[in-house]
Known about the structure:
The structure holds 2 protein chains of 2 kinds. In chain A, about 0% of the residues lie in helices and about 55% in strands. Chain A is mainly beta.
Amino acid sequence: EVQLVESGGGLVQPGGSLRLSCAASGFNVDTKDMSWVRQAPGKGLEWVSNIHSGGSTFYAGSVKGRFTISRDNSKNTLYLQMNSLRAEDTAVYYCAKVRWGAVAEGFDTWGQGTLVTVSS
Amino acid sequence: DIQMTQSPSTLSASGGDRVTITCRASQSISSWLAWYQQKPGKAPKLLIYKASSLESGVPSRFSGSGSGTEFTLTISSLQPDDFATYHCQQYNSYPWTFGQGTKVEIK
C-alpha cells in the first residue's frame, strides 16, 4: 500500500527553523515526483515545492530562498527544511506524490499533514 | 502566476441534487487541471485529473469537463458522503496553483 507519513511540525518562533519529514512506503521516493502543499487555518491549499525524480526542484515565490526540498533515498523520506519562518507560514503541511501519466497529473497520494505554528 | 477562481465559494444543496462547480484560469492551461475533495481535518483526495479523467475508485457520479480557461466539476446526484470542500488545481506551469475552494453544504 502506498502511504505517506509526515512528522516534524510544531511551534517555532518567527525567524526560526524547522525540518519536516515525510516517510514513504509502498514506493521509492526517488522514482516519483514529490511535493509539499500547505493549508493555512481556514484557508485554501497552496503548493509549496516540488522535487522531480531527476532531482530538479521548484518553489513557490513565497518560500523561495527560505525553504529547501530534499530526499534521502536510503531512508525513503522526503524533507522540507524551513528557515526564516514567518507568521504567514503557519499552516498544515502535506507531502504528496505526483500522479504521473505521460506528464504530471495532480497529486494522487497525500500524507495526513503536520501542523506548523509560527508564533512568539 | 496563473490565478484559479472557483465559483461559488459556498453551495447549499440537498441529497439527490445535481451540483456544478466552476473553475476559471487566468490564462489557458489546456486540460492540465485536477479536482480534489477535502473533508474537515483530512487530506485532499484526487477526484479528476486532466480535466475529465476519473481517478480510480472515484464514483462515476463525479465528472469533469472543460479546457483552456473554463472548467466544471459536476456531481450528478449528491450523496451524503459528498458534503465537503472541493478544490481545483492547475499544473500547466509553475507555480502550480489552486482555486480558493468551494464548500458544498447541506441545504
